[in-house]
Amino acid sequence: MKHVFNLVIFSMLLLVVTVACESDGFDSDASVPKIIDATGKASCPSSHPYEACGACWVDANQAQSGGCNDTGGNNGGGDNGGGDNGGDQNNNCPSSHPYSACGQCWTDANQAQAGGCNEDGNGGGDNGGGNGDGNGDGGTPCGEFNYDPNNTACVTVVANGSGCMNSDGLFVSSKGVVSNPCNTKEAVLDIERNLGVNIDDQFIAQSGYQGNVPSINPTMTKSDFLIYMKALFINININGKTGDQFATEFADLLDTNNDGILTRNEASQAKGSDPRQVLNLEPIFTINGGLATDDVLAYVGLYLGDGALDKYAGDLPQIVQDNMANFTRTWQPGVNAASKRYDSNN
């Protein structure tokens, strides 16, 4: 009898272990981890909005097939899919992009605004109210700034003539595109998240700067910088020299003290040693030379120029722009801010 009792207890324990394994032993390769947003909150990305078993999935079916049996999944990617975002939820938009505005589907109102869409989400038209007069009667809050894409009237001309500052204190390009500081910060965070590199936190916090350049000296490891540069130079091959080779050589030239750490000051000194400030990238940046070199450095804090990071990619060759659009959002002067230049599925 005692033997039978022990056998029953053992069977029950085995069952508990089996159930626990079914709940926790899911296929992690099928899921993605949460991401940290600009406020420091962890949430699922729009590509994998279903949260279950502490990970992010495309939907409940993928979670189930991956071995996750948690039925308490949150479909909507954190706060992005809730009913309080002001959007029209009675639409044909997918759960990953439930906010309908300007004839497109967005994660939420903030993403729509960052993309240049000022519709209220219910088909009510432009709610920006901006008329270019700079009276603060339009636009949306963005940190310390008010972002109004219609406020293109110049107040202060930028010294190098590349644009001007409007009454909201935001940079306006020579083609009339207003810089969006919130989108700028997201562009930097895109690089960090999508490429898995570490960008200086102090630079990220101030990356939406306008006008005056912050007096900081951001740093980045050469190994992380190489990941970024190689991603920019994919499919480049000039006389048998690959993009990877150009990237490696460029990183070595910037690392003047060979300590494996790049800084803004160090990069400026290295570029300054070349009259054109192009170093080894002349075959790639044949048109805008040193300006283009500054542009690629600006996105990771190794170059700080006049405000408005979102204008910098305009000096890059098309192939580099296309590569950049695969892992970070950006638009160039003369290109409408609503134009999609970022693949959120990547």
Question: What does the model show?
Answer:
Among the domains are: 24-81, no CATH class; 181-325, no CATH class. The chain contains ten helices and 16 strands. The chain has helices spanning 2-24, 60-65, 109-114, 181-195, 201-206, 222-232, 243-254, 264-272, 289-298, 318-325, and strands spanning 35-36, 42-43, 50-52, 55-57, 74-75, 99-101, 104-106, 140-142, 145-147, 156-157, 163-165, 171-173, 219-221, 237-238, 241-242, 261-263. Strand 3 (50-52) and strand 4 form a beta hairpin. Helix 6 (222-232) runs antiparallel to helix 7 (243-254). The chain is globular. It starts with a helix and ends in a 21-residue tail after the last helix. Residues 1-22 form the signal peptide.
List the helices and strands and how they pair.
Blueprint lengths: L1 H23 L10 E2 L5 E2 L6 E3 L2 E3 L2 H6 L8 E2 L23 E3 L2 E3 L2 H6 L25 E3 L2 E3 L8 E2 L5 E3 L5 E3 L7 H15 L5 H6 L12 E3 H11 L4 E2 L2 E2 H12 L6 E3 H9 L16 H10 L19 H8 L21
Antiparallel strand pairs: 1-2, 3-4, 3-5, 6-7, 8-9, 10-11, 11-12, 13-16, 14-15
Helix pairs in contact: 6-7
